[in-house]
Amino acid sequence: MKTLTDYSNIFKRYDLDLEVKKKEAREVSKDPALQKVAGFVVKGDDEGIVAAVNDVLAAKDPVTVIEQGLVAGMDEVSRLWDEGVYFLPQVMLAADAMNVGISLCEKKMGKARTMKGKVVTHTAEGDIHDIGQVIANALLNAGGFEVINLGPDCPVDKVVAAVKEHKPVMATGTALMTTTMTAFPRICAKLKALGDKTPFISAGGACALEFGTSYDNSVWAKLDAWAVPLAEDALSGMTWEAMRAKWNA
Amino acid sequence: MARKPITQMAYKSGEEMIFGTAKNPVTTKRGIKLGGGFVHPQVVPHPRPGSEKTKNTLLREFEKMNNDALERMPIVGHPTLLIHQEQIFQMCHNTDWGADIAALTARQMDDYKAKYGLLASQQLCIADLRKPQICHMRTSDYAKEVIESFKACAPYADVLGIESMGGKEIFDHALIRQDVGGLLFAIGYLGSIDMEWMWNQIVDIAKANNCIAGGDTDCSEANTAVFMAGGLTSKDVPHVFAALTRAMAAARTLVAYECGATGPGEDCAYENPIIKAMTGIPITTEGKASACAHSDLCSNLIAAVCDAWSNEAVEYHDMFGATTPSVFAEITGWDCAQFNTAIELGYQKEMKEILVNSDMYRDSHSLILTPDNAWKIGNAIVKNTAKGYYPRARAAAMEAASIITGDAKMKLTVFEKEALEKAVTDMEALPDDEANFVDMCLKKYKDVKGFNPDSYGLK
Fold it and tell me: Which residues of A touch B237 (CB under 8 A)?
């Protein structure tokens, strides 16, 4: 079959033009042991991190290890992702490594670490496409939020009950089908009827700006990467109206 | 029907493959010969949110969508139309909903044939309600509803299909971690086992109802990889992973045809060119006209060997020109008129070259789907069929990797290049033997949320 030698009049490889020069991760701690722990998070090494965390726990308290080693490493990963050096899989592997380290620290503490707040997440009733929710869960957890994961095909009433029970800073819904995202306004209507003003994040492939801002309580999220900054805004006390004004203007 | 493993290629080369013609054409109830020399348009209307409220509202929605699409054909002079019904959850969960809508669609097509001589057919894609994380893949109520829906809808269908979900729980876990071994386990092994379980039943149902057992697609996995890879400015999953996943998907989707399905498979099976090379079945593909549903980087190339040309899915709305089913039935019909004119003028080879060259170096996922490369990947699959599901999927992925790295015109970013190199290294380190690989994976992935080996008949 005939092929061309030059395709520049047919398509433009923007990815090659936009390619970000590879950058090394920055040092996050002057303490070598904590930096070593952070390094395993940055590399996404959930096996190597075990020895590193156990070693440093012999000399430092778990809260310090979590905050200045594990979370600090994760913050560096977030920076690399924001700058286009890291892609999503590196972020997920880093989150896995961080969680392994946190489990070890929690075992030493004898209790779970203090999380910033709770977020109730679910995939819409009748919808089984939950990979967006899975990613958001990992990012929220890595961002210090306790995720109440209701899973795929979650009935409307179960979401409302979970919001009532857990009093999260926000709730999220993911839908890939336009015929399942109709669950979101029903959830929000029930929350509103209860006088509950918890921000509800409407997300997923089916959900566009116009739909996601057409009912009270709802803030539309375009990307999984918005999950943590949205949660931080909710945690800071921003109302759903203020969040919508900021994110969906 | 018991599976008959495919160990020989249907085509001698990619060059032999062309749009409009398949080695093993099939004919629908109202006389459309798919793969019989010409390409046919396919439209996939999707109901609006809210129309699923009751059976009646949904029935009325489909009635209008179907009519709008069918009505447009005699207006513009398109001789055939394939209507593809991708079931929403409610249509399978409530079996009578799906069956009544299928029956209605059949009546509408009969009416248009009687009135205008328009040849139309209906491909029913039964919703796979099973999600490994929420139910047992074989014994759950959802699994039973799927089979019951096939039985209820088959009397009205021309073609039966499904987008099956086997292996999805491992796939989601593996893709976002760039774990190529996990992808091979999910798609190549678990997906194939689940396909065999499903398609033996579907083929029997189709035979009992005098309709065509069409085929499947690895939408839940390979298309997820493509969508997460995104376009040229995306930073989620490497595009090379979408390419490797697609190659594995062909090994898995092949199982339907080994169980007796005859095509056309599902339109969103971008692995269909590989499937056609291996089986000779007619295939439906989707590209530029499916931008209404999703974007891709091979929108022209994917038409190069199609036998039906689809728009994937479009929600029912008004546009300036007409409603969406009218508009997209017309658009896909015009594309087919181009293909068929090229065939009649003897310019099909040149048109194939145009389609392929448009996209082959746009992206690595596009490159592996050229007819020549699809043939090479298919050849790697069939040559390894005797070794088992996993070895042939792995062979497919290794061939895809080799195609990408071996073509100097395929430019990759450093990130993509490193991702591909690591994937190859990881695949080379995996066990060759299927039993050893499966043992390893059962241990490694035992804690993945929702993974139940019993769903696949494994201990």
Answer: 87-89
Query: Contact B358/A10, CB-based, under 8 Å?
Result: yes
Tell me whether residues B178 and A89 touch, CB distance under 8 A.
yes
Checking DSSP bridges between strand B40-43 and strand B308-310, what pairing results, if any? parallel
pLDDT digits (tens, 9 = 90+) for B292-324: 999 999 999 999 999 999 999 999 999 999 999
As to burial, measured by CB atoms within 10 angstroms (0-12 exposed, 13-18 middle, 19+ buried), residue A76 is buried
- Cβ within 8 Å of A, B 39-78: 46-52
Q: How far is CA B296 from the centre of its chain?
A: 14
The CATH code of domain B21-456 reads: 3.20.20
How far apart are the C-alpha atoms of B21 and B346, rounded to whole Å?
13
d(CA B149, CA B432): 39
Q: List CB contacts (< 8 A) between A138 and chain B.
A: 176
Contact B357 A7 (CB under 8 A): yes
Residue A248's pLDDT is: 97
**What ranges in B123-215 are assigned the alpha helix state H?**
141-153, 168-175, 180-183, 192-208
C-alpha distances in angstroms, B22 versus B13, B308, B309, B310? 13, 11, 14, 17
Q: Where are the domains of chain B?
A: 21-456
Residue reference for tokens 């997440």: A121
How close does chain B come to A36, measured CA to CA in Å? 22
Q: Report the percentage of chain A scoring pLDDT > 90.
A: 85
pLDDT of B374-390, one tens digit each?
999 999 999 999 999 99
Q: Averaged over B410-420, what is the pLDDT?
A: 94
Q: Give the pLDDT band of residue B139 (cuts 50, 70, 90).
A: very high
Q: Could you give the CA distance from residue A145 to residue A139 in angstroms, rounded to a whole number?
A: 9
Mean per-residue pLDDT, B162-167: 96
Can you give the pLDDT at residue B144? 97
Half-sphere exposure of B73 toward its Cβ, with a 13 Å CA cutoff? 27
Between CA B289 and CA B21 the distance in angstroms is 21
DSSP 3-state of A220: strand
User: What pLDDT sits at residue B6?
Assistant: 98
Q: Determine, for residues A89 and B129 on separate chains, whether the beta-carbon distance falls below 8 Å.
A: no
- The reply to whether A128 touches chain B by the CB within 8 Å rule is yes
Question: Which of B90, B142, B232 best tests the A interface by mutation, with the highest count of A CBs <10 A?
Answer: B232
Mean residue pLDDT across chain A: 94
pLDDT band for position B235 (50/70/90)?
A: confident
* Structure tokens belonging to residue B160: 């039966």
Inform me whether the pLDDT recorded for A126 exceeds 90. no
Cβ burial of A235 (10 Å; 0-12, 13-18, 19+) is middle
B415 touches chain A (CB under 8 A): yes
Neighbours of B440 (CB within 10 A): 14
Mind listing the domains of chain A with CATH numbers?
A: 25-109 (1.10.1240.10), 117-247 (3.40.50.280)
Residues 391-410 of B with CB under 8 A from A: 409
Contact B228 A88 (CB under 8 A): yes
Instruction: Please name which of B165, B170, B157, B162 lies closest in space to residue B140, comparing C-alpha atoms.
Output: B165
ipTM value, please give it. 0.88
List all residues 6 or more positions away from B445 whose beta carbon is below 8 Å from its beta carbon.
B170, B173, B182, B185, B451
Selecting from A10, A152, A179 the residue whose C-beta is nearest the C-beta of B88 gives: A179
Chain B from 242 to 281: CB within 8 A of any A CB = none
